[in-house]
Design a protein that fits this description.
mainly beta; 9-stranded antiparallel β-sheet; 6-stranded antiparallel β-sheet
Length: 300
């Protein structure tokens, strides 16, 4: 199977070798193989890949052996050290379209790590219109009673004991397979209140692709606490709603939120692609295997 290094990966390698970019992401880098039903374009992004969508398909991790150079003066080469197994495909059509190519994707650094929330949505300096009450137990408003930064915060008040929920009124655009970090500072004078950040990833039509939640934090009264939630946007995601979820123990309890952020931290870059010598297809409950040594990368 033959493979070609994308220009993005080539630039990253040259930057690293030249000492201009020493941080290439998480070490050791997580690399996954994606099956494609058509040739990728030149220097593709993950979103431009014609990836298999059959039920039972998932990208698979790739383990590499050490780089070898058996002939002096010749380029070094690295190859996958173990089998890579896809499936079994539980789709009624099995692997509906033949896998003609595959691509290696790995952790990279996004072009921008800026906050996707506007200044007013983040710090509520003008009004609270950037947030909506998401259930009947919630009343929200801008408040100058307590704030972490600036002069105001988002005040959330419970109608009764139970969950209070507010979400962004306008959903920021996201990219599938990119990792996003969200943060928020929260303050209360009540005891026993628990809170967290949830992220509802959706496709372009508003259908949820994944609802990502984390464990709750029990707040210490009269103390500002920072909440965090870091997760990867799943396939098909184009937008996300950030939700601030709080469990009150009585009516009239208040939580103040301030300095909310949502930003990409890691993205998935296409590092390399290969064309299969023979297109692979599997029926329902069958699998597709890439043998050890089938994937090679050469540098030098």
């Amino acid at each position: 199977m033959s493979g070609s290094l994308t220009s993005r990966a080539t630039r990253a390698a040259l930057d690293y070798l030249a000492g201009k970019r020493l941080d290439l992401g998480v070490a050791p880098q997580t690399m996954q193989l994606a099956l494609l039903t058509a040739a990728p374009p030149v220097d593709p992004t993950v979103g431009q890949l014609n990836e298999v969508a059959s039920t039972g398909y998932a990208r698979q991790n790739v383990a590499w052996g050490l780089a070898t150079n058996t002939v002096p003066g010749q380029p070094s080469q690295i190859a996958n050290s173990s089998s890579i197994l896809f499936g079994p495909f539980t789709d009624v059509n099995g692997l509906a379209y033949p896998a003609t190519h595959c691509a290696l994707v790995g952790v990279g650094v996004p072009d921008s790590t800026a906050n996707l929330l506007s200044a007013d949505v983040s710090e509520i300096e003008t009004d609270s219109s950037g947030w909506n009450a998401a259930n009947a137990n919630t009343t929200k408003a801008r408040s100058t009673t307590a704030f972490k930064q600036g002069a105001a915060s988002l005040r959330v008040t419970s109608g009764a004991a139970g969950n209070m929920l507010v979400g962004t009124a306008v959903n920021p655009a996201v990219t599938a397979y990119t990792t996003y970090a969200s943060t928020a500072w929260v303050y209360t004078t009540s005891s026993g209140i628990k809170t967290k950040i949830d992220l509802n990833f959706m496709d372009s039509t508003g259908v949820t692709t994944a609802y990502k939640t984390v464990g709750q934090t029990t707040l210490t009264p009269s103390t500002w606490t920072q909440l965090t939630h870091t997760t990867q946007a799943p396939a098909g995601s184009t937008q996300v709603q950030m939700l601030l979820s709080t469990d009150a123990t009585a009516a009239g309890q208040i939580a103040y939120f301030d300095v909310m952020t949502l930003a990409p931290t890691l993205t998935m870059d296409v590092l390399m692609s290969w064309q299969f010598d023979v297109a692979g297809q599997a029926a329902q409950n069958e699998s597709l295997q890439v043998s050890p040594g089938s994937l090679t990368m050469t540098l030098g």
